Amino acid sequence: MTLVAKTYWGGAPFFFKRPPENARVQSLCFHSADFRQLTGLYWTREDETRPRRAAILMHPRVDFSRHYAIPRLVEAGFGVLAANTRNPNNDTTTVHEDILLDLGACVRVLKEEHGVEQVVLFGNSGGGSLAAFYQSQATREKGKRIETTPGGVPAALGRAEMIPADALVLVSCHKGQGMVMNECIDPAVTDEANPEHSDNELDMYSARHGFRPAPEWSEYSDEFVLRYRAAQIERVERLDETARALIAENERASTLVSDPDFQKLGFDDQHRILRREARQPVMTIYRTMANLNYVANHIDPSPREYGSLLSDRPDLMNQQIMGFGRLCSPHAWLSTWSGLSSNANLLKTLPEVKIPTLVVNAGRDREIYPRTDAGPIFDAVGADDRTFLEFPDARHYFEPEFGATEAPDVEELMDSVVPWLEERLPNR
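The structure assignment produced for this chain is given below.
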């Protein structure tokens, strides 16, 4: 049985179906403020190789180098830098306070090396919480930026030059990867080392609680929904405690190494402590495809199809490796995947973002929901110039039906996005 959704059968659904016309592309290599080497593709129109306006496409882990928004932006005269963070295709060690420096490097390289005067942060899906987090920090004075990561490591944000962007576009964005985890983690897991140990009273995929055979929509009682959501938060709290305990073990080893008596120990004892200090534990987070909204449309109604973005059978995919945050370091868990600890949360950061902001919702999105995500996100926007657009028939990546060679929903989206940007960032 193939459990991966058809959305992914033909390749990355966020890649463009047609390349931009009359375009040129440069492969850029540059560095973040903490000296991480980064790469990206810089797309420009052939007759405007040094545009004054440019957009940045970046996701915490996904490669957006051929993103569907590129063709129309380039054809409108915008440069587009589609760049990877330091963690492409793998966010096992992703700490958001670090990858803000990667996005900052993109803004800097456009403005200081490529003649760009106005920069748009185009946040798609998980790129939205990254973009807003960056802008909220970039507009603060250095001394008022976040000083430590949720795991307690000093952050470099206060020492870095962070140039604010000039406009923000949020398309099909969730509130943050951690907020997604809060809602999709399976609270029935009772033993983090053994996913077979499960509490049947919290099993959303049990008929006794209202689950029905796919693709029939399930029905859950209000009591079960409240109890389930509370138990999800409790599991996240336990995982936060585990992450902090693992970090504390490393810190204790570092304290021993710094102790003057360390030099008095024998070689074997010294080496044992050094190895413990160097150890980087990895947390395995089992069963992270258990959002009630995947199989129940009555909790947060929308025209979406049954299932999740990743699978038509989340009840089975929940047992597989594919899913959100399945492997991560303790620091990555706290910074990226814990909705209780992560700073990459649009509800926290958007009130500080004052640049023109466009929020776009796709009505048939199987991961972003009207009441859970789109409404609260727009309500959190702090800019006076803010716009909300709804595309009721579009899916998460505005992708067409399986096998189609054109993406009409993308064209309809960009018919609105490009004029919105041109009105606010005129090419004068």
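Interim note for the steering committee: The first strand starts at residue 23 and ends at 31. Residues 222-258 form the longest helix (37 residues).
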